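EI: anyone free to look at a 616-residue chain?
SC: sure, send it
EI:
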Amino acid sequence: MTDDALRDLLFQTVLIFDGPIGTEIYRRHVFLNRCYEELNISEPGLIEAIHREYVTAGADVLTTNTFGANRNALAKFGLSDRVVDLNRAGVALARKVASEIARPVLVAGSVGPIPSDPFSSISVEEVLREQVTSLVEAGVDFILFETQHSRDMIQTCAGLMAEFPDIAFIVSVAVSDEGESIRGETLEGLVGGWPSHLRSPTAWGLNCGAGPSGLLHVLERLAGLTALPVVIQPNAGVPKAVDYRMIYLCSPEYFTEYAKRYLALGARGIGGCCGITPEHIREMSRAIKPLARASRSISEIIKAPQQLTPKEPVPLEKRSQLGYRLSHGKWVTSVELLPPRGWDIAGIIEKSRQLAEAGVTAINIPDGPRASARLSPLVTAAEIQRSVGIETILHFCCRDRNLIGMQADLLGCAALGVRNILFVTGDPPKLGNYPFATGVFDTDSIGMVALQRRLNSGLDLGGQPVEPPTQAVIGVGLDPTAVDRKREIDRFRRKIAAGAEFAITQPVFDPDALLEFLEQLGPCPIPIIAGVWPLASLRNALFLKNEVPGVVIPEAVLERLAAQTSREAQVAVGIEIARESIERIRRHVAGIQVSAPFGKIELALKVLEGFLGEVP
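SC: here you go
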């Protein structure tokens, strides 16, 4: 496979790489005193089984069991004369398993660091050439130089690959959380300022070195250093101290949450390294593949010629009470209530009535949060509006419906009078209790905004007339604590360009972070409503901080909660902190959305005391 072919493939889609071979061999009770690469010949069935587990889990790339199949590494086992045999056997095993799968699966020839051998007269370059030549002749699709930790060695690899111009290669570096290799070289020193006389890698990679959390910020740095595709394969990380216990925070779900953020930062290949298992790859693959499809623009999907002239949408102030308040700069308050798990809506109707009587502007209704199966959010919203008379803000995600189904439901919203809609991409199905459900993701939130604006202009997806036009107030989500703030701002501006008319942020636990985001964003043409989540306890706060990637809770907040000895006192402090946050940001936003922890609306109302009505 050539540079162009692999690079184009990485840019066109997101490839799922497999996980470690060595970890899986050890899990099968093969001790470290054996040569793992020699198993390619002595126990081929074992290696095939590992490859088969990974490809069954969803891997698009199988890495050969040849990480240490070089002359210097094999010497300590007395196998330095078996380089060619072991590499060829490793490629054959991976290729055999790849051929069993109906979909395309690539085979990457793994080349690890070359250990020094003071007793050998053969240069490192010759040792490297011997292994790479064996892998290329055996038929790998590309070479993967893994766990590299020095600029000199990286350049040696690139220099050697000039001898194989028709074979793509990826250089993957191993760095710590701080972005330094074991030799103390920085990420910038390893990959930055690439010499013009050397062949460039097809892609850069990050592997091992650090766990999912540690490599997140390193990936952000690497993305700023190169325009080439990036592949990321973290290890399982190190244990963290939680209540004096050392806990490994790398379940398949935890790994997948970080994989989603890697995707958001622009990673084009995602896999695992030491400690990651086929189960991690399976869970990650189920989430990442649908989300990768969602990145398509709605403009690429709408191909029917436009034969009708779009109509001017109904003015925002006339579409709904929320639209009126937003267009006239009036303060907005909303409380989030989850649809019931069953079909009895009496409870949520009563809570909505109490909130309406208290003066809350609208009820916020999520669409299958955490990929859970609940009563239809559209039915819930419509019944609340019919029974109580308070408006709702309906979350609308693209996970469960294709474009035709989404258009049908948006027309249903119009027919039922549900006019305030917040478009979100949605959580992958595997995050909920139904991991084998299929995620559709024909488009993302930007595409859905464009579709709704089209319906508001009297045209459907195929250019057919919609009479009368819909009158939706178009909202979008916003994450002020996003790791890649530049990308979040860019996507937000694209949402506005697509037709967004208001935004609601993710829950803000650090008001300074929101204010910094707004300052960097600059003048905003649409109103922003800030999300606020009153922490119900220290345990609640620690769960969000440790288990939910991207949630930023200042240490001062944790200390204030920890200083309280009773659950009731912690609840009171959580409410106090939320109110302080609102006081800090209220002059910078158009309103507040408060979550009701565990459905307890009394907590939300305590947070909103003094902030209902016309608040300056």
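EI: Residues 567-585 form the longest helix (19 residues).
SC: 👍
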